[in-house]
Amino acid sequence: MKVSSVLGLNARTKLFSYPYNSKKGKRIARSKISTYRVLKKAQIPTPAIFKRFRTTHDVYDFNWDSLPASFAVKPSRGLGGEGIIVVKKRAKELGFWITIQKKRIGVGDLKLHVMDILEGAYSLGNYPDVAFIQEFVDRHNAFRKYSFRGTPDIRIIVFNKVPVMAMLRLPTKESGGRANLHQGALGLGVDITTGITTKAVYNSNLIRYKPGTERKLNGIKIPQWEEILKIAVSCQEVSSLGYLGVDIVLHPEKGPMVLELNSQPGLQIQLANMAGLKKRLERVEDLHVRDVEHGVNIGKALFGERFAGRVKKDKEVKKISVWEEITLVSDTGKKVRVLAKVDTGAWRTSIDKELAAKLGILKKENILWMRKIRTSLGVVERPVINLKYYLSGTKISTIASISNRTKMRAPIIIGRRDIQGFLVVPGIEDKPHHWVPPKWNATIN
């Protein structure tokens, strides 16, 4: 991870949080109850609120015995998980419950805690606050063997409608079942494209296994990942926040739910992913993003893990030549074989405009953004699209620039971005100069 790509506290505030987040958006993010109202109005799933407490009269007038077996008591303006009590089940005695820390708590304890919240014990600046009781979301089965008692959550950083970085936070015994890194929870970096965990951090140190076990923390697949990304981007559209962190929990039956929004999300997510936020944010800052789906597609195209990182160490590295016959995939899933040139001098793959149009992959919904190119005729804009093809039997999903290659020997150039994990050996099985590639207008099988 390059130091120049890391986002620091001052840069976060001056370059992204302050200029892109409105006062209205910050007010929404500071209050969990305001966040709840905005999300409910936009029909974005979020845990239900059973009761709000604004005054001491609300505390004494409420029928505490009407509470369900599990719930969470929270301050509306609390920070870092402070002041939250999570109740998991009823105790045998009437009027008592058991928390996720396996502590017995009664109505009297809950009343005192809510009174502390109202007096501002957990709010920034100790200002009077509002307390509320919210629906409890239990652990999803996918995380049960990795999480200690509490509920894991997924933090996604969204900027300009693009999900740029994600992290899975797993409660530990040290964190008391809470998914807060500063209290001792685990932070797992997540591949934006697949929703699979890649690296893990514990108390600011990189680790491979869950503490005290031999369970690997990389390779965990987060269910309903596409839906999670879309929900995160939708939160930006309704919150008046251009740069934010979205905390999502996965309900075992109801699916993804938004827990809260952050106008200045923490920066440890960079360590969990071993990647800098600053460079990623700058890459999407000036892009024109049409809608939620477009933003998700851009995030997956730009910030997915490279193929080389997923190649097994014991697998033989494939050798390829400078000229390779590849199989392109059309918009309907049909395939066509063409000649491609492997160009280690180019970073990104480039495909002929006419061929892309015939494959149906030059449609508006598949265009990620327009890239400015300086040519002898001046500055021109060329589309950048999603592209799928097979190289030496390996399926590659990438992004490609559109260009005019009608007079070139090969309609597609494969850049070095797509050949990590391959060994390019000039001369091996190279096609002779008189070799004629398949017609570009060949029938798509």
UniProtKB/TrEMBL annotation:
Keywords: ATP-binding, Nucleotide-binding
PROSITE patterns: ATP_GRASP
A GO molecular-function descriptor: metal ion binding
ATP-grasp domain sequence ranges: 36-293
UniProt cross-references to InterPro entries, sorted A to Z: ATP-grasp, Peptidase_aspartic_dom_sf, RimK-rel_E_lig_ATP-grasp
Matching Pfam families: ATPgrasp_ST
GO cellular component, one term: cytoplasm
Domain of life according to the entry: Bacteria
Keyword Transcription: no
GO aspect biological process, one term: SOS response
Cross-referenced PANTHER family: BETA-CITRYLGLUTAMATE SYNTHASE B-RELATED (PTHR21621:SF0), RIBOSOMAL PROTEIN S6 MODIFICATION PROTEIN (PTHR21621)
Protein name, per record: ATP-grasp domain-containing protein
